[in-house]
Amino acid sequence: MHEESAESESPKGTTLNRRLLLSAMGAGGAGLALGALGHSAYASQKSQQVPDDQVPFYGEHQSGIITEAQDRMHTAAFDVQAQSRDELIELLQTWTQAIAQMMQGQPIGTSGAVDGSYDAPPEDTGEALGLPASRLTVTVGFGRTLFEKDGKTRFGLDGKLPEALIELPHFRSDMIEEARSNGDIIVQACADDPQVAVHAIRNLARLAFGKANVRWSQIGFGRTSKTSSAQSTPRNLFGFKDGTDNIVAEHTDDLNAHVWVQKEQTDQAWMAGGSYMVIRRIRMHIETWDRATLGEQENLVGRLKGSGAPLSGGEEFTAPDFNMAGSNGPIIPVDSHIAVVHPDAHKGIRMLRRGFNYTDGSDGLGRLDAGLFFIAFVTDARTHFVPIQQAMSANDAMTEYLRNTSSGLYAIVPGVREGQYLGQQLFES
Ligand SMILES: C=CC1=C(C)c2cc3[nH]c(cc4nc(cc5[nH]c(cc1n2)c(C)c5CCC(=O)O)C(CCC(=O)O)=C4C)c(C)c3C=C
Ligand SMILES: [Fe+2]
């Protein structure tokens, strides 16, 4: 809860005095390392039950991956201007502190938005005052360019670049805009309230002033996946259910096989417990799509538009039968989206999709700039994304209605324990 008073009610009913908590964090506020920032206050908070509107920050994995997909997203990629390793670490420590506060529904810093000096800019920008934590999650990862740029290693990270953190190749039909692709650091904020997600990115960008700049950012307004069996399947802007056959939080074996990087699987021990995040901003030519008949649309996807059931029959969660004959070849066309990307066509490879619908105004020709901000978390994009995207670009009839406009791959660092900062495993390995 963002409180306008200094008192906030803990879930167990004990009153946390925010002024005491903030003063325990020291005069340097959010800019200091966590070690100096009142661990005991956070330790006691963590041992309390987390309210329904909060997602725990600390853990083996970062939040925002298997967290039940929220409906609102603001993602930003940053390029680091800081020259020294210490400055970069300080930024990550500052961010860690601020993220932990915001995920608890607290304003950032020691004096928040309204409790500081009348003669200084407030530490927190204030637009989330009075709003609940709204299940905010903030997920942080590193792009390849954090490790090396223009042929030079950066921040003393020689030998730390994971083999799997490749530059994604060009795919047929890509029209990638470099200015909204890649970046040194990715920060994804998801929440139930758009203002809470935007507040998180804005305040992290502000804390980064002088050390890192926003390279690009994207707002998403509606989830296009489900990440728990309890969630309903949402719809994408083609009007189809999206996320039916996704990996969900309850699928522990699939998560270990396809999402979480395993110790024995990586050349970089610091990535164990992390994941790789693929981002593709995919513009959808919705005006053209809207002129396709229902039958054409269903043949392009391979599923019924209403129920989401495969064209081979059954209901939404019935497994598709790609061998069932139709009047003219298989009833699920071989060039339909699900026939091309299904795990059966890719040695059983799966991914955890966690994308969002977006609209960014119109393009001046009367067409909406709208689409899918595709996000997938995988153990290795070389095996879990590139071949599937290649197959899609080459064989998927739906791609005629799509244009890939941005692309990025990021190493999502493992989760942190209290007292640690995001990315510490990398800098201390
Ligand atoms: C390279 C990976 C994928 C991209 C890029 C992608 C883009 C994309 N997808 C849809 C719509 C749907 N996708 C669906 C399923 C689905 N998509 C992928 C992969 C990519 N999609 C996978 C692996 C799957 C699961 C396939 C399966 O196991 O059957 C569906 C069906 C419903 C579902 O299972 O989620 C739809 C609809 C769009 C519109 C799009 C680009 C804009
Ligand atoms: Fe898809």
Automatic annotation (TrEMBL):
Signal peptide: none annotated. Residues 62-221 form the Dyp-type peroxidase N-terminal domain. Its EC number is 1.11.1.-. Binds 1 heme b (iron(II)-protoporphyrin IX) group non-covalently per subunit. GO terms for biological process: iron import into cell. It comes from the Bacteria. It catalyses: heme b + 2 H(+) = protoporphyrin IX + Fe(2+). Keywords: Heme, Iron, Lyase, Membrane, Metal-binding, Oxidoreductase, Peroxidase, Signal, Transmembrane, Transmembrane helix. Residues 233-416 form the Dyp-type peroxidase C-terminal domain. It is found in: Cell envelope. The chain crosses the membrane at residues 20-42. Its cofactor is heme b. Residues 110-129 are annotated as: Disordered. One of its GO terms (molecular function) is peroxidase activity. GO terms for cellular component: cell envelope; cytosol. NCBIfam families: Dyp_perox_fam, tat_substr_1. Belongs to the DyP-type peroxidase family. Involved in the recovery of exogenous heme iron. Extracts iron from heme while preserving the protoporphyrin ring intact. This is Deferrochelatase. It comes from Glutamicibacter ectropisis.
